[in-house]
Design a protein that fits this description.
This protein is mainly alpha-helical and about 425 residues long. It is about 55% helix and about 5% strand. Residues about 55-70 and about 200-205 have low confidence and may be disordered. One of its GO terms (molecular function) is citrate synthase activity.
Length: about 425
C-alpha cells in the first residue's frame, strides 16, 4: 500500500511536522519507520482527519476554524438550497421529491423552470427546455481544436451564446428566466453527438421534443439510451442543480452582485467549478474505480488515490453530511432501480471501495462517487461527471443571479487584511522589502 511521508501527512492535516510528531508521541496516529523517514497509512490519516474535524468544526452555518474545513467569508442569504439535519432541500422541497420516480417523465426541465417560477412544486407537464439555435455559437464551436474537451466546449459555448443574445444585459427576473432555460439547453447542444445515436437524434426526433437528459445522453456515450438510463441521468441533473454556497456558487453570486449578465455569471461559476477539488472530483474517483475494475486491491487503490490527490479520499467524506451525502444515496438507488447489468457491475465495484473506506475511516460516499459510477457503467468519458455537473449547476447559478440582482449591488465585497511588509520598511534606504 502506498504510504504518505511525514510532510505529506502534515500537509493533509494542515499542521506542522512538529505537531504531527506530537500526535505520534501521544498515540493519536501510528507511523512506520522507513529507510527515508516516517511513513503513514493514508486511510489512517483520513480517519484521524475526520475525527479532528468533528472536534474542531461547529455545525454548518456557524463560523469555522480556518483550515481544511474552510473559513466562510460571510453568511449569504439564499432561498434556493437548504442543508439541514443531513438532508438537502430545494426551495423548501426535499430533494428526493424532485427526482422522477420509476416510469415517470424526466423532471429536470420542469425543475429548472420551477426555480424561476417560484411555485410550490414543479409542474408535471412542463415542456422540455429549448436551446437558442445560435448559428454564431455553432461557428465558434466548430472552430475549436479537434481535441477540445467537453468542459472547454461549454466555456466557449457560454461566451458565444452571450455574444449572440441582445437581451443579455436585461436583468429583469423574467428575462433572466428566459436566458437560463435557453442557456442550459444551449450548453447541451454545444456538445458533439457520439456513436449510433447521432442519426436518431438528428432525424426522427427533434431536440425540441426531448428532455435535457435525453439530449445529453448521446453526447456522453455511444451506448443506446433507454428510459431507465435517461432517468438516471435526469436524476443526476436534478440532484446537482444547487448545493448551498459552494465555491463556484459564491463566484457566480459575486459576479451577479457586480451586475454581470447571466452568461458572465455562469462563466464565473465555471472558473471555480473546473477544479480537481470541486467539479472534477469525479475524474479522480473514476480512475480509482477503474483500478479496482482492472484487478487492483481496493485498499491499495484507495491509498494510491489518497496519496496522489492530497486532499482526502476522492468521492468520500462530504463535510456538510457527516452521516452521508443524500445525493449519493439517491443517485446510487436510482442506478440500482435501473436493473441494468452494466450499472450493476459498476455498483459492485463502488460497494467494494466503499466498504474499505468506511471500515478504515468511517467516511461515506459523496455524489462524486455516484457520478463516477454512472460514467464507468455506461462507457462515458472520465470527465463526464464534470460535464453533467456543469450543465446542471448552470441553472442554479442563474437562479442565484436572479436573486442577487434584486439586492444591493456590489454587496459581496470583502475587505482585505494586509499582511505584507510594513510601509515604513518600504521607504527605508537599502530595504529589500521593495
Amino acid at each position: 500500500m502506498d504510504a504518505l511521508t511525514a510532510a505529506q501527512t502534515a500537509a493533509r492535516l494542515g499542521v506542522r511536522t512538529e505537531t504531527l510528531y506530537a500526535y505520534v508521541s501521544r498515540g493519536l496516529i501510528a507511523r512506520e519507520r522507513g529507510a527515508h523517514g516516517s511513513l503513514f497509512d493514508p486511510l489512517e490519516v483520513e480517519r484521524f482527519a475526520r475525527a479532528r474535524r468533528r472536534v474542531t468544526s461547529p455545525s454548518h452555518g456557524a463560523a469555522r476554524v480556518a483550515g481544511a474545513d474552510g473559513s466562510p467569508l460571510a453568511v449569504i442569504d439564499t432561498d434556493i438550497a437548504l442543508i439541514e439535519d443531513g438532508e438537502l432541500w430545494i426551495r423548501g422541497v426535499p430533494i428526493d421529491e424532485l427526482v422522477a420516480g420509476e416510469g415517470e417523465a424526466p423532471r429536470f426541465d420542469a425543475v429548472v423552470r420551477w426555480l424561476f417560477a417560484r411555485t410550490d412544486l414543479p409542474p408535471r407537464d412542463a415542456p422540455p427546455l429549448e436551446g437558442p439555435g445560435s448559428a454564431a455559437a455553432s461557428r465558434v464551436l466548430a472552430a475549436l481544436p479537434p481535441g477540445a474537451g467537453a468542459f472547454s466546449r461549454l466555456l466557449a459555448a457560454v461566451a458565444a451564446l452571450a455574444a449572440d443574445d441582445p437581451e443579455r444585459y436585461d436583468l429583469r427576473p423574467e428575462t433572466v428566466a428566459r436566458i437560463a432555460t435557453r442557456l442550459v439547453a444551449g450548453l447541451v447542444d454545444a456538445l458533439p453527438l457520439l456513436g449510433s445515436e447521432k442519426e436518431r437524434i438528428d432525424g426522427a426526433s427533434t431536440a425540441a421534443d426531448m428532455s435535457v437528459a435525453a439530449r445529453l445522453w448521446p453526447r456522453l456515450t455511444a451506448l443506446p439510451a433507454t428510459p431507465a438510463r435517461v432517468r438516471v441521468l435526469d436524476a443526476t441533473l436534478v440532484l446537482l442543480v444547487d448545493h448551498d454556497m459552494a465555491a463556484s456558487t459564491l463566484a457566480a453570486r459575486a459576479a451577479a452582485s457586480a451586475r454581470a449578465h447571466p452568461y458572465a455569471v455562469v462563466a464565473a461559476g465555471f472558473g471555480a467549478l473546473d477544479s480537481a477539488l470541486h467539479g472534477a472530483v469525479s475524474v479522480a474517483v473514476h480512475a480509482l474505480l477503474r483500478q479496482v475494475q482492472d484487478g487492483a486491491d481496493p485498499a491499495a487503490a484507495v491509498a494510491t488515490a489518497t496519496r496522489l490527490g492530497g486532499a482526502g479520499i476522492p468521492g468520500f467524506g462530504q463535510l456538510l453530511y457527516p452521516d452521508g451525502d443524500p445525493r449519493a444515496r439517491l443517485l446510487l438507488q436510482v442506478m440500482r432501480e435501473a436493473a441494468d447489468p452494466r450499472a450493476d457491475a459498476a455498483l459492485r465495484l463502488a460497494e467494494q471501495v466503499s466498504a474499505v473506506v468506511h471500515a478504515r475511516t468511517g467516511l461515506h460516499p459523496t455524489v462524486d462517487l455516484a457520478l463516477a459510477v454512472m460514467a464507468l457503467a455506461w462507457e462515458m468519458p472520465a470527465d463526464a461527471g464534470e460535464t453533467v455537473f456543469a450543465v446542471a449547476r448552470s441553472a442554479g447559478w442563474c437562479a442565484h443571479a436572479q436573486d442577487e440582482y434584486g439586492r444591493a449591488p456590489l454587496r459581496l465585497r470583502p475587505i482585505g487584511h494586509y499582511v505584507g511588509p510594513d510601509a515604513a520598511d518600504l521607504q527605508r534606504p537599502g530595504s529589500n522589502a521593495r
